[in-house]
């Protein structure tokens, strides 16, 4: 190998910023994949031990002596695995809770941290609710405390009340549509922007760009920001997408159109055009159809339904909130005070 050091090219701030952004995304993605693999391996062991205890029909009470001795012997062999009697009973409970569950729920709990699974078992009876919170945790990277808060706020029931306003079922393949339905929500909270008075669409966009990391966290895991006012040129005309993202799981470009007021039917036609241009000009061969999200201050689901009726591009309409819920606002204030100290 040559000892000559390569000459570093001159990079402006924007070019360096893009390198930094991509490096951070690579590290975060790798960490997430590794964490999922570790959790999956651990849960596989716990599942097998729980199945063993269940099949031997051991119950707390008469079986306590057996499990206690098993814990002692296993800890001598594997001292770092958390094989206390209580945890062994939890493994049995884990197996018996989910062994008849559907595949998607099993896949979700298999990669959750064990503490999250214990919380789901302690706080929930419904398997549908467990699936919802497990998917939300994986999508948004919730800590155990955030998961507990979501359960206390009954986020599952709130989500069931929200009517999905999109045409994914008609414009995407079944598996892709189901995943898109899980990724995108009906409402997004933009309280982190600190907006307390009316703003114009461009200002809203600029504030989102300034706090793009917070916005990506609100969107959920898997999103990478490509750019704002993304330029598309076709037939000697220029078009600009407010915000353009890429979702790794969906393998789709995601265009977001920001609107200050209530939803209007004509917004759908504009988004349909953007998606056609993105599919024609930007989409790679191995990527899926581009998806559009119209993010507005308010929507009527009947208006959205009729506007999307004959559209062949996948489009969703979501609302945004500019004020934080009371509980989140109090938490934010406490965090700010603690940071100041």
UniProtKB/TrEMBL annotation:
Q: Which residues form the signal peptide?
A: none
Tell me the InterPro entries matching this sequence: PD-DEXK-like_domain, tRNA_endonuc-like_dom_sf, YhcG_C, YhcG_N
Highest taxon above the source species: Bacteria
Residue limits of the YhcG PDDEXK nuclease domain? Answer: 182-328
Q: Which residues form the YhcG N-terminal domain?
A: 25-157
Tell me, what's a Pfam family for it? Answer: YhcG_C
Molecular-function GO term, any one: nucleic acid binding
Q: What is this protein called?
A: DUF1016 domain-containing protein
Q: Which organism is it from?
A: Dyadobacter psychrotolerans
């Amino acid at each position: 190998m040559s000892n000559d050091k390569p000459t570093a090219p001159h990079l402006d701030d924007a070019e360096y910023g893009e390198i930094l952004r991509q490096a951070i995304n690579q590290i975060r993605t790798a960490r997430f994949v590794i964490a999922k693999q570790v959790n999956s391996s651990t849960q596989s062991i716990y599942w097998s031990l729980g199945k063993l205890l269940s099949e031997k029909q051991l119950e707390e009470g008469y079986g306590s002596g057996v499990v206690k001795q098993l814990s002692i012997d296993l800890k001598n062999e594997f001292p770092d695995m958390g094989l206390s009697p209580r945890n062994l009973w939890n493994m049995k409970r884990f197996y018996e809770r989910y062994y008849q569950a559907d595949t998607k729920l099993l896949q979700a709990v298999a990669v959750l941290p064990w503490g999250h699974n214990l919380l789901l078992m302690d706080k929930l009876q419904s398997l549908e609710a467990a699936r919802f919170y497990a998917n939300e945790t994986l999508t948004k990277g919730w800590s155990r405390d955030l998961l507990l808060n979501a359960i206390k706020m009954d986020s599952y029931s709130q989500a069931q009340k929200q009517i999905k306003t999109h045409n994914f079922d008609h414009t995407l393949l079944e598996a892709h549509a189901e995943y898109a339905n899980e990724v995108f929500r009906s409402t997004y909270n933009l309280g982190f922007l600190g907006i307390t008075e009316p703003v114009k669409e461009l200002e809203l966009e600029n504030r989102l760009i300034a706090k793009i990391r917070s916005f990506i966290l609100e969107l959920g895991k898997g999103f990478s920001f490509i750019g704002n006012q993304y330029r598309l040129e076709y037939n000697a005309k220029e078009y600009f997408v407010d915000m353009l993202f890429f979702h790794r799981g969906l393998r789709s470009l995601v265009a977001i159109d920001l609107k200050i007021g209530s939803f209007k039917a004509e917004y759908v036609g504009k988004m349909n055009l953007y998606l056609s241009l993105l599919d024609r000009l930007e989409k790679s061969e191995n990527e899926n159809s581009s998806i559009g999200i119209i993010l507005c201050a308010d929507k009527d689901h009947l208006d959205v339904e009729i506007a999307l009726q004959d559209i062949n591009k996948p489009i969703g309409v979501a609302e945004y909130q500019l004020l934080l819920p009371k509980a989140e606002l109090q938490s934010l204030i406490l965090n700010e005070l603690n940071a100041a100290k």
